[in-house]
Amino acid sequence: MIFNTHMEPKIECTYVRDEKFAKEYFSYHYYRRPSGVIITVICILALVSGFMNVFAYKNYLAIIGIVLGIYLLVFRAIRVKNFIKLSLARDKESNHGNFVSVHNLVTENSIIVKSSSNETGAEYDLSCIEKAYRSKNYIYLITKAKLAIVFDINNFSKGTPEELVEFIRQKGIKIK
Q1: Considering the entire predicted model, what is its pTM?
Q2: Which of 22, 39, 45, 67 has its CA 20 to 30 A from that of 90?
Q3: What does 34-94 look like in DSSP terms, one character per residue?
Q4: Looking at residue 143, what DSSP letter applies?
Q5: Cα 101 from Cα 76, distance rounded (Å)
Q6: How far is CA 67 from the centre of its chain?
Q7: Which is more confident, 144 or 39?
Q8: In what order do the strands lie in the sheet with 156-158?
């Protein structure tokens, strides 16, 4: 792969895919995406329905609603915890037992992503970026293929999070 090495990076950012990162990444994407919100609402409605049926003396419906609501909420929490554990284990396996460090370089037309487990890196044309999200500590650029390119807002070595947000907006990319 040939990178735009002749282009001076406008923005540079490094982050580590550690437990803090994994918890925020999976929690943010698992609970705040539209499908995650819908599932959460369904869990809450099942619980409310169950408790309402207690007062309507429909014990079998109450038990079904309460058990279903609790089961779905617990299942979702366990699933997120397992995704975090699996993601960290995969990263450590690919990086000699260490957390993976990622370095992003943003040029006028592309983003170059290099990591401690893949020094050769990958280059993504900015036209591949479909949308962007901002969480408490990270900015996620989502490609059309649903790959997340992540920027830690506390670890910019060139540029700032605000400059990145402005740059991607100028490129016509929506950010939430």
Answers
A1: 0.79
A2: 39
A3: HHHHHHHHHHHHHHHHHHHHHHTT-HHHHHHHHHHHHHHHHHHHHHHHHHHHHHHHHHHHH
A4: E
A5: 28
A6: 30
A7: 144
A8: 118-125, 110-115, 100-106, 11-17, 156-158
Predicted confidence (pLDDT) per residue in 65-113, tens digit: 888 889 888 988 898 899 999 999 999 999 999 999 999 999 999 999 9
Tokens standing for residue 172? 């016509």
**Both structure tokens of 99:** 């957390």
Q: Give the DSSP H or E segment for 17.
A: strand 11-17
Count CB neighbours of 154 within 10 A. 10
Polymer length of the chain: 176
Separation CA 69–CA 84 (nearest Å): 23
Q: Is 134 left (phi over 0), alpha (psi -120 to 50) or beta?
A: beta
Residue 111 in contact with residue 127, Cβ under 8 Å?
no
